[in-house]
Amino acid sequence: MTKFRTTLTATAAALGLAALAAAPAQAAAQPAFLSAAQMPASSTPWTATPVFTGVPENGGALCAPYKIPAQNTRYREFTTELDTNGVQITTVARTEADAVKLVDTLRKALAGCGPLLERQNPGLKAVSAYHGKLAVEEGAWVYSLDTADPQVGNTDIHLFSVGRDGRTVTFVRWGQMGDLKDAPLAGFRTTTKTAVNKLY
């Protein structure tokens, strides 16, 4: 795995969740998370970590240059034996208005991720694409990031989604080597709907 791929994977996870002030946890219950079996189909089984409090330790801000709050945020990471990986990060906002703002902020960051990476990494080819809104709870939005590094000859594809149920926002990322044509976009849409439906 190249240095860029390692950084991108860590950073993509961090796109997940930012710009929220500290918020009280929902009193009724903590949001539920995807299981390994609910990730898009893979040629080798998915495994999932426990759900951790806070944000991933390797969470940077390459495509989302703002601080990621650890309070009222939890995450779970996913891997397969074939270098396919993913993460789900969920945050409970203080108010529904704050959750709406967070979704808007994340959507803008995901839409502009490719051009930002190209500016930060001369020679890198990076294309972001929007793949539509899903009708689940208050909505979920799907994006992709297709990158190619000519210097080392590798390509990577990531799928992202941001969904909201009331004042709870969840972010899901899937990634592996390859191009957009290699990505399970239909399966990722299903995973995203499941993630938002499972929150409560």
* Number of H- or I-type helical stretches: 4
Give the strand tally: 8
Principal-axis shape: globular
The assigned structural class equals alpha+beta
Radius of gyration: 16 Å
Q: Give the SSE order as H and E letters.
A: HEEEEHHEEEEH
Characterize the largest beta sheet: strand count, sense, and whether it forms a barrel. 8 strands, antiparallel
* Percentage of residues assigned to helices: 25-40%
Strand content: 25-35%
Written description of the protein model:
There is one protein chain. It is built from four helices and eight strands; from the N terminus they run H-E-E-E-E-H-H-E-E-E-E-H. About 8% of the residues have low confidence. Strands 1, 2, 3, 4, 5, 6, 7 and 8 form an eight-stranded antiparallel sheet that branches. The longest helix has 16 residues. By secondary structure, it is of the alpha+beta class. It is globular, with a radius of gyration of 16 Å. It starts with a helix and ends with a helix.
Secondary structure topology:
Layout lengths: L2 H13 L31 E2 L3 E2 L19 E7 L5 E8 L3 H16 L1 H8 L4 E10 L5 E10 L4 E12 L2 E10 L7 H14 L2
Antiparallel strand pairs: 1-3, 2-3, 3-4, 4-8, 5-6, 6-7, 7-8
Briefly characterize the structure.
This protein has helices at 3-15, 96-111, 113-120, 185-198; strands at 47-48, 52-53, 73-79, 85-92, 125-134, 140-149, 154-165, 168-177. It has 200 residues and is of the alpha+beta class.
Features:
200 residues; alpha+beta; globular
